[in-house]
Amino acid sequence: MRGQTETTPESSASSKGLLLALNQSGKHIYAGTVPPHVTARRRAANRAARQARRVHRARAAR
Fold first, then answer.
1. Cα dihedral sign for 40, 46, 52, 55?
2. Cα–Cα–Cα angle for 20, 16, 33, rounded to 5 degrees
3. Cα–chain-centroid distance for residue 58?
4. Which of 20, 51, 55, 59 has its CA 20 to 30 A from that of 44?
5. What is the pTM of this model?
6. Residue pLDDT, tens place only, 6-38
7. Contact, 11 vs 18, CB < 8 A?
């Protein structure tokens, strides 16, 4: 079926090695893969959304 994955109780040696290497790097997996201007735009949108939620919650509480 589409969208379903098999789960196995044990991990393969290669997947364990990959996870170990990713953890040893000390950085987020996707660090540096998004241009800074995109990150800034997303953060600005998130700030605006948080502010809007605060306003809506305050108005709903009245």
1. negative
2. 55
3. 28
4. 59
5. 0.51
6. 666 677 888 888 888 888 888 777 778 899 999
7. no
- Angstrom distance (rounded) from CA 55 to CA 51: 6
For residue 33, give both structure tokens: 């893969």
Q: What is the Cα–Cα distance from 36 to 11, expressed in whole angstroms?
A: 36
Phi, psi of 28 (to 5 degrees): -65, 145
CB of 29 closer than 8 Å to CB of 22 = yes
DSSP letter at 8 equals -
Distance CA 58, CA 51 (A): 11
Residue for token pair 């735009």 = 41
